[in-house]
Amino acid sequence: MTGSRAARITRRSLVVGGAAVVVAGAAAEAVNLRLLPGRSTMYRVLGLDGPAGTVPDVDPVPSTSGSFVSSARRGETVGWTIAAPEADGPLPIAVALHGYGDDHTDFFGSHLGYDRFLAAHVAAGGVPFAIAAVDGGNRYWHRRADGDDPGAMVVDEFLPLLARRGFDTARLAFTGYSMGGYGALHLAGVLGTARVRAVSAISPALWTSAGDTARGAFDDAADFRANTVIGRQRSLDGIAVRVDCGTGDGFEPAVRTYVDGFATAPAGGFEPGGHTTAYWRRLAPQQLAFLARHLHA
User: Who is most buried in 17, 183, 205, 255, counting CB within 10 A?
Assistant: First the structure.
């Protein structure tokens, strides 16, 4: 190969390689600016979601499970689990609402491991509280047109069950992820500061308009308008609020809109992460510390 031929190939390679770098850089910038579809996938492929959280290797706090037939849910059998450390008196309680396609069991064990995160929190000197999760189906934690009302099930059936079992429901918080993050914000707003001390939502499933919602999240546009939490931030006045969302989460733009609507910014924030168990586990210790602090305030 002659020197001139090699030089031509080298120059061509440099031009092509430089163009690829420019295109890749432009694509990454477009992803950051939310200009491309598939943003969540791009963040994951590019390694922008940050480290995965891990469940602590400790013995979980004791838990008990059961079920009841819910009148509010039109005769559905509803399962529940309560994870609670040993305590001398009635513990305050955080009601945990699961995401779409999940159930109450996903908060515990090898999935999210909140029973182990809670044990680690107490072992490190954190004040104790209980976590109670309950099944809500895939109905987005509010009354639906067919009469199924998982929100009323929580308020009118599950909270009394917790009180009968000796928990201090006057010191109450809500938490949840994805669909359950929306549900936690919604129910905390419905009950207000007279009954709720804190709410911590992680990756809440929020939309800014009815036309953007996932199928089945709301019955129709009127149902969305009646139950969206965006524009209703004042309903949480007097309640300690934390909202977390990963920057690689498809819900992040709507969650930013929601957070920006508060007169005083909630705790929490935005950091690398997707709409994934890996991100939810990473944020679990901060969430539990926030809930404990405000349940005992």
Answer: 183
